[in-house]
């Protein structure tokens, strides 16, 4: 990990000297354990603040839009796909972004760690070889990192950046036997009522804080539909139909664009796994149109293109 | 007729049942009837040969029943006289009657039907309600056979020698529909001589039927059909290899051909126009709509058997030919309508008037109209509501206008029949009062309510209330919409200086419009320069030279040879095309564009082409014939190979002209040297329509046609110095070898590999690389982009006569735009609210009409945001639905309007 | 349950299905009255929001046809 951090700082130090680059966006050490907030580095003094860990859950593509000038950004596999998506949708220009790819073995789920450890956590240290040491209340536990990974990282098949100017480290191996859609298939197998109950239960704790929306790089509308009043698509309260409408529509807005970066889940204070919605749409796009978001900047997302060869088996 | 509201009450009461001709005699109609559901105008008529009142003087039930007093027994056929400058003969054709010389057992079994009868069996409005059953026992068939060429390609008495051109494709279609209809599987077999799917995209259709629908194609000669006792029919036939075979089917469909009806003979006599030996109207390839009498034009199947796309193309072409003929008297009889200035209702509180129509008893017989009117009075913003017997009658419309003015209504709802037919009528009435026509909603409480819920008046009434409540809710949110007037630049651009392009330019100029023509090559003429003769024997070079001279001498036509298009901007009415020629760059401003950019002859990399001088393409042979090349004198044996590069997986289309072309050239060679041995190796011979005569003549003159095994292919090798063609004959199932002195390859017509025009004018290419028309049948020369039209080979392979027709048609369609001088853009278009736009470009990407674009980065307001050009917008709303940011509004169907309808549902 | 009738909202494309519903009327085909038709210019106009909102209004089924 330290090699990686050193390399990140070395690259950043070089880039801040480049006058054409406004800033370098990366991660810094948080004030509490297991949270790495983003930082924009503009001077050589700040380079040392940059870090890297398995808590860099935020999708940095989110910070590239509506920025003037050229920006450098550190990007995991999913971040890079979101950047590709931004390029395809005209939100950023390829020439205005320097992408420093960081091959990624997955980020950890802080709630999982907290639940396993039980007590208040003071420090989490990653060791080479895939072990994680958690310290707090004077005791220490060792875990395997693979047990602590976020769900989206467990099924990730794009661990290496798809578009980059340089890489921080050698690409990591992607196992071939990843069952990407096991979670989705489980839900699909449910009877229709059970499926409804599953989703109703899933969102029952939602407090409509919109953290998921704000963390999501694909949610960049000036006015979100939930804030519109004419017409008022959806009520503002926590009635189930309104909450469900919010989640379903938000998921549909990301269809064919979501890269399963997990920023929504990681940002949710209520630990709602709203990926249950988006992952299904990802699977459908793959099954129906052989489409995966963020792999090519030259093509529009699946739901925004038309080809005469479109299979229409999905229309009944 | 004006009074008839097509309620159908008369027909229900009429006691006289008559055989229904439209259902090919398979069902009954009444003596007062509408011929078919889609009839225009939708008015009932009395069959005076069947009506009891008219034949026996008693009954009169329909007059008693009719709610509007529309029955007039005194109505008689009248002779009308018109003063006209031109006549278009489009009297069509009829189908061959297999009963006259009954070789197929048509009279002996009810389960032997004509293809037209089978269409009715499949139709949901047909005699069996779309349930595919045998006419005899009404049980579902397991096996259906189609017999091709019934009455066509047959010189026996009663039949016709020509090919009817459409039957192969319609049989393929019927077979696919039948397979689709059959719930438990169906064995569909088509017995044929040659499958002639020569039309655009028809070959794909044929492949689809065979490969995906499992339709069997049996190459055969039918000997006879024997109806058996169990209602089946036994088809006895000689198969491809000359062996006798038989197979039983539940239904046999006779694919009957097309022929000219007797009434056409009378008409031809009256018009004094020349007919050919089959009684089709005689025409020429270079003026295919003109008859032997000036001012009389022809289109459709009265000229030759043809399909719908060709007929519709010719329809436009004949109108254009007549238009050119009459161009001097253009506008001399036109009248203009005057409307009052529009009232400004912006900011006013809605004052909604609701008019509920009884439609005689059509609505009021089921829906409790008075209670609906009472209910409506209490809906928000409704200040007036009333009922009317027939809201669409002229006095009711006058009354509507008076009420709008008296009650100062600023929104109107009419609950009556369908907006598809009546919306415009009411909107025009609104306009006469000064109201904007878009502050209007129509509620369909007839077609969608009273007619379909006859037996439950209570819930039908409740539904009518609901539907009106929804419309009231919506109309309150409707505002006046602006119909932008667009000026149309009164000039045209034609791309391509081949036969089609030149003909299009000539037609446009003759109708008085300035035209620019761009040709990529240095000289005009295109592929026409290479062709020796048309299938009718006309000299192509002479005709092309005349066409070139015509347009060169036309002061109204600017010609840019050696030109190419570097940039295109604009849209219907206002295109700007930048043309670069060797010495200059010009910006052409034009209102319409006609693409006639052509196609080329495929040059194969097989059969020793380009390696041995004796191997040439069809067009190369034409050039030798035109030049009277002495090489031709030396030839003792010539072989033609058909379908080189056509009808193969990489190019699954038929090039349409090559069969006739090879036959024609074979005959020309035979004429020069009757001793020459000529072999034509084919897969299916496709000299469609009247071209069949040439095929017969070729066989009579000794040209030998051999059907080669396509799977095994053809090998060309050397036998010493001689060329040797080796192939397997499918009939003899033997390997054969011929040593020709000349090998002619009938190669495919291929579109350009890259076609920048598609991008430049935003027109679509089909899978084969030819331009796609807006609708194959209804709009065969229009592009989906307004103001752009198509003709010639760039649209698909076709012979000269069809190219010329299509060119005149494209020019005519263009003139329909140019003649209007301005066009009013519909008010129901999409509009961007830039504050909400997230610049994602979804709308720009998804719009099929390229209406949205980004505002330029240098613009003062909202740079980078999306904007929508109302001139290009068709109001479909795809962009609105795709806009995640909710920034796009479809005027007239905006989110809040539809949501307000939804909100009022229950 | 047997006499329960679903309430259906239909969004019909003006260019095709709406006309088909008209023709069903011309042909006097009888069908249950528990359907409420909303005319849209094209099924491409359809938004998932309309579906959800119809369901929220109490519809048991939504039919989009075009």
A few lines on this structure:
Chain B is of the alpha/beta class. Chain B contains 23 helices and 43 strands. The longest helix of chain B has 20 residues, at about 455-475.
Write the layout of secondary structure elements.
The complex is a heterotrimer of chains A (316), B (906) and C (66).
Chain A: H1 2-17, E1 21-28, E2 38-41, E3 50-51, E4 70-75, H2 77-88, E5 97-101, H3 110-117, E6 123-127, E7 131-136, E8 139-144, H4 151-154, E9 166-167, H5 182-188, H6 192-202, H7 211-215, H8 240-253, H9 263-267, H10 275-289
Chain B: H1 9-13, E1 17-19, E2 28-30, E3 32-33, E4 45-46, H2 52-56, H3 61-65, E5 87-89, E6 94-95, E7 112-114, H4 115-122, E8 143-150, H5 167-181, E9 187-192, H6 202-211, E10 216-227, E11 233-239, E12 244-249, E13 251-256, E14 258-259, H7 262-271, E15 296-298, H8 308-325, E16 352-357, H9 369-377, E17 382-388, H10 394-406, E18 411-416, H11 419-432, E19 440-444, H12 446-450, H13 457-476, E20 485-487, E21 491-495, H14 499-510, E22 514-519, H15 540-552, E23 557-561, E24 564-571, E25 574-580, E26 585-590, E27 592-595, E28 600-601, E29 615-617, H16 618-627, E30 637-644, H17 658-672, E31 677-682, H18 692-700, E32 704-707, E33 715-719, E34 722-729, E35 734-738, E36 742-747, E37 749-750, H19 756-760, E38 788-790, H20 800-818, E39 822-824, E40 830-832, H21 842-846, E41 852-854, E42 866-868, H22 878-882, E43 888-890, H23 895-903
Parallel strand pairs in B: 5-15, 7-13, 8-9, 8-13, 9-10, 16-17, 16-18, 18-19, 21-22, 21-27, 22-23, 27-38, 29-36, 30-31, 30-36, 31-32
Antiparallel strand pairs in B: 1-2, 3-4, 6-14, 10-11, 11-12, 20-39, 24-25, 25-26, 28-37, 33-34, 34-35, 40-43, 41-42
Helix pairs in contact in B: 4-5, 5-6, 8-20, 9-13, 10-11, 13-23, 14-15, 14-20, 16-17, 17-18
Chain C: E1 8-13, H1 17-26, E2 35-40, H2 48-56, E3 61-65
Parallel strand pairs in C: 1-2, 1-3
